[in-house]
Amino acid sequence: MSDKKEMEAYMQLMLSFAKVQKNMVRFIQKSAVKKGLSIPQYSILMTIIGCNEMTQKNIGEKTVLPKSTLSQAIDGLVKEGYLDRQQVEDNRRETLLALSTKGRALVEELHLQEDGLHQAFKEASEQFTPDQVDELLEAHGKISAYLTQVELEVAAK
């Protein structure tokens, strides 16, 4: 393949990822605003839903939010009753967070929201066969793993 064609191919792939991400962000912004959440608060809720509880540090690592933004967003979620916060027993400097009953109900509403990301993505993915979904997941996983590896190598230098 010529250099020009090769460049066009990977540029199209990059642009494809960018378009999907841009559309997802639009859905997230709309859903967050509808529920009175900031984007960081939405991200925190979607991060913690897969676990019963998470430390604030782990949430920060997964969301890549700046510490001040993370703290402010968590404070708001605790104040609204969406998150429960407690000190880690053997490490008083660490905070453990869990979705409250109210928080779980909110996340469920976000997942079921007809004009929300989860429903739109579900409907969009229904056009693929299970094998195509597996292939997409494998391809995305390879790209993600490679980019993570390169990032770690650059950081180590």
Features:
single chain; 7 helices; 3-stranded antiparallel β-sheet; Arc Repressor Mutant, subunit A; mainly alpha; 11% strand; 3 strands; 157 residues
Describe the overall structure:
With 157 residues, the chain is mainly α. It has two domains: 3-126, Winged helix-like DNA-binding domain superfamily/Winged helix DNA-binding domain (Arc Repressor Mutant, subunit A), CATH 1.10.10.10; 127-157. It is 71% helix and 11% strand. The chain contains seven helices and three strands, in the order ααβααββααα. The chain has a three-stranded antiparallel beta sheet with strand order 1-3-2. Strand 2 (83-88) and strand 3 form a beta hairpin. The longest helix is centred in the N-terminal third of the chain and has 32 residues, at 3-34. The model has no long low-confidence stretch (mean pLDDT 92).
